[in-house]
Design a protein that fits this description.
A hairpin with a 4-residue loop joins strand 5 and strand 6. This protein has 14 helices and 10 strands. It is α+β, with helices and mostly antiparallel strands and about 350 residues long. It has 3 domains: about 80 residues, Arc Repressor Mutant, subunit A; about 160 residues, GAF domain (Beta-Lactamase, 2-Layer Sandwich), CATH 3.30.450.40; about 90 residues, 2-Layer Sandwich (Enolase-like, domain 1). Strands 7-3-10-9-8 form a 5-stranded antiparallel beta sheet, sandwiched between helices. Strands 4-5-6 form a 3-stranded antiparallel beta sheet. It is elongated and about 90 Å long.
Length: about 350
């Protein structure tokens, strides 16, 4: 990325900041009116032309003003932006609403609503990836003559329940025997490791008389894998559609298609997160997905013991990064702290 001089940085900062606030292309006369600039419109036009030549600005055909390119936004985020601090009121609202909730799914659902409400962007929260969690125990509970509830617990304190169809009632001692054998053989493994090696680990019990082990081998994906599409919470849909960018039919259709394609959202959310430090910002074509070239996404991992999930906000490239980054960081931190206290 080209090195900019102080004058170019000042002009670029003003253009990006103004465009984020107004969604209107920025002209030289507008910048010249700022008292702290001290430059003539002609000088500013020359600097803007240089920035456009270097790829930081674009020049819409219908306007004399400039708008930031992906490269311009990236330089702004990396070099020019000053991170804001969430207000005490916003922090209190987030903590109060989340701490009043007990169920994992409810916590994540509320987190997505809070993010959408405060950010005015599309907010996304994915559930922890249980497949990376370490198996703690399995319990079997017969709920009827034809239905068996399998309860799988991992060390982080999360629980997965699966309802299985069986041919006939199985005596309680037999259920206890099967559960005890599985707990001994699967202890200390991740669910993903179990899924990949389950048949081999229980091979000698494959033909035990209840038929449970054979059923579990046939249902290994259902038991030890997860459907990520069932584990995503989206909020703020009304907020994002009110943004000026979506007044055009093309962009409106794009965001509707995006909300209908949860696989893309999950992929970008998890691929963009470095899992350490501050929130990660992915801008426009950096997502490498056609549907998202007009969007940016700010993502962060939250932790639940030895497993993790992701949260993020997705919106126009014109989003207010200086507020989105601390907001996503704080919500992720609050969720992690909440789960940690629950496990103690």
């Amino acid at each position: 990325m080209n090195t900019l001089n102080d004058r170019e940085k000042t002009i670029l900062h003003n253009i990006v900041h103004s465009y984020i606030q107004t969604a209107i292309p920025v002209g030289s006369r507008f910048i010249a009116k700022r008292r702290d600039i001290g430059l003539s419109p002609a000088t500013i036009r020359n600097v803007m032309s240089d920035l456009e030549y270097l790829g930081y600005l674009d020049h819409p055909h219908t306007s004399a003003g400039r708008i930031p390119t992906d490269k311009g936004y990236r330089f702004y985020v990396n070099e020019l932006m000053e991170i804001e601090r969430l207000s005490e009121s916003e922090q209190s609202t987030i903590q109060t609403q989340l701490q009043g909730t007990m169920e994992t799914d409810d916590i994540l659902k509320i987190a997505s609503k809070i993010l959408g409400s405060i950010s005015h962007q599309l907010s996304v929260v994915t559930a922890p990836q249980m497949t990376s969690g370490i198996f703690e125990k399995l319990e079997l509970l017969q709920v009827s003559s034809s239905r068996l509830l399998v309860i799988i617990s991992i060390r982080s304190g999360l629980v997965k329940t699966i309802m299985m169809e069986i041919h006939s009632e199985i005596p309680r001692p037999k259920l206890d025997e099967v559960a005890r054998m599985l707990n001994e053989r699967l202890s200390g493994l991740t669910l993903n490791e179990i899924r990949n090696s389950f048949a081999e680990r229980v091979r000698e019990y494959r033909n035990e008389d209840s038929g449970l082990i054979r059923l579990f081998i046939e249902s290994v994906d259902k038991l030890f894998d997860e459907n990520r599409k069932d584990k995503i919470h989206i909020g703020g849909t009304t907020n994002i559609l009110s943004q000026p960018e979506f007044e055009s039919a093309k962009n409106f259709k794009s965001v509707i298609e995006l909300m209908d394609n949860e696989d893309i959202i999950i992929h970008v959310l998890e691929a963009g997160d470095a899992k350490t430090g501050s929130a990660t910002v992915t801008i426009g074509e950096e997502t490498k997905i056609e549907h998202l070239k007009e969007f940016s996404i700010v993502t962060k991992t939250y932790n639940v013991g030895d497993v993790s999930g992701s949260i993020g906000v997705l919106g126009p490239k014109r989003m207010e990064y200086s507020r989105m980054i601390p907001l996503v960081n704080f919500v992720a931190s609050t969720i992690s702290d909440l789960f940690q206290r629950r496990s103690q």
